[in-house]
Amino acid sequence: MRAAIIGQPQSGKSTIFRVLTGSERPAGQRDRTEVGVAEIPDWRVQYLSNLCKPEKTTFARMDVVVLDEGDEQSFLKGVRSSDVLIEVIPAFLVAGFGGEGAASNVTSHFDHVNLAFLVKDLQTVENRLERLRLNKARPLNQMEPGFLQQCKEALESEIPLRNVKFDPVYDTFLKNFDFLTLKPFIFAVNVAEDSLTSLAFPGKQQIEEIARKAGIPVEIFSGPVEEEISRLPAEDRQEFLEEYGLDEPGAWRLARITRAHLNLISFFTIGADEVKAWTIPQGTTAVKAAGKIHSDMEKGFIRAEVMAFDDLYRLGSVKAVKEHGLYRSEGRDYVVKDGDILLIRFNV
Hints:
single chain; alpha/beta; DNA polymerase, domain 1; 3 domains; 6-stranded mixed β-sheet; 20% strand; flat
């Protein structure tokens, strides 16, 4: 999973990158794509770690990059190689924000990027249709022209392809063309400290309206507050968060929202050596989940021994789960659920 942070200059991109990954973007090198790794907080992992007392505990992770737009080709390449775009919206009260025109100011970068993606995708579709018309290319199959025409009509109407309901038979085309307007967005709204409690900030109504229509999740954070939280010892964080009416840092919520927006879930493996969360798409079968751990497990898959985290949490031990008949064996086609704890039996 790879998330790309985008936004206008001075919007708070570097702050989000820093609090998510614990890494600093080197000064004077902001034109480079910096890559970091963010842990996805999950209280279930911590519970399993406390229960099993392993040598190592590993949370689910995602790669995070900041994309600057100085070079268009590098920017677009970074977008195409990412799974989700986190648009940082500056909605703090500084010069140029608040009062008349605030709403259009805070969403201007998203509007610009969205339009640029629409234009690029329309060019891709029109070029492909022209090559097919002139017999300079062969269609992937007889359905491709119809698919391209549906894309063309949507893009000409300024509808991003992520908001178009395509027939499932077109899934292969969607993967092959790698359209920019298919990329899902998340709005990370950077507000002033006071806005964390008042929930009032410049452009709020327009941000929420755009997000509602486009199906874009919104997470509100304050850059200075997040940085202060990240510097505090763990034992002092809760009291600081309560001052702002928060249960947890905004960066933690953003990490989880990102995963959920991509329809990803976690399963766990536990043992004395390691407790680990693994990230897979919803609908993944047991044999494919085994391959996530190691390719040999997928090749030699025999069965998956499964228990639900909720059952283990409720009953307090693996022994109790087994005694209640809730520890079971599943075959290769079993669809793994969020929170499943798996033990893969395999033979190579």
